[in-house]
Amino acid sequence: xxxxxxxxxxxxxxxxxxxxxxxxxxxxxxxxxxxxxxxxxxxxxxxxxxxxxxxxxxxxxxxxxxxxxxxxxxxxxxxxxxxxxxxxxxxxxxxxxxxxxxxxxxxxxxxxxxxxxxxxxxxxxxxxxxxxxxxxxxxxxxxxxxxxxxxxxxxxxxxxxxxxxxxxxxxxxxxxxx
Length: 178
What we know:
Layout: E1 2-4, H1 40-57, E2 64-65, H2 67-83, H3 96-102, E3 112-121, H4 128-136, H5 139-145, E4 152-159, E5 168-177
Parallel strand pairs: 2-4
Antiparallel strand pairs: 1-3, 3-5, 4-5
Helix pairs in contact: 1-4, 2-3
């Protein structure tokens, strides 16, 4: 899902169907490990590597990790896993634009664009590569990953899934401030 100022683009929240990951297309450390096997920091780095490898394959500049976007993404992943819902809209009605705005990321920006991808998986399907593959096989999620508009990314992970049980819930918030 993506919004830009002053025009809002509407996209449906899609449940990402996870499929088996193909052979590694990039040497990203920890990209193929399940969420329970390494630290969240290692998973964030691996997710960033996987997404930037996709961007590199399409001759796009890499995304830079942003602290404020990561804070918004982390809060949302924790909320979805903890309160067992899966949506771009929080239970209190806040959109991802609201969550990103609350971090101060958009403050003072004359123009901006933001987007969000969400996913969850269990076992091997909770690995950064598996999540990245699922997003790349979903046109709206792929569009966010490969958007030339975005320069920065926030990655938030939470233990558990919206349906309960082990695994991980991922949120990526994309941004550009003009």
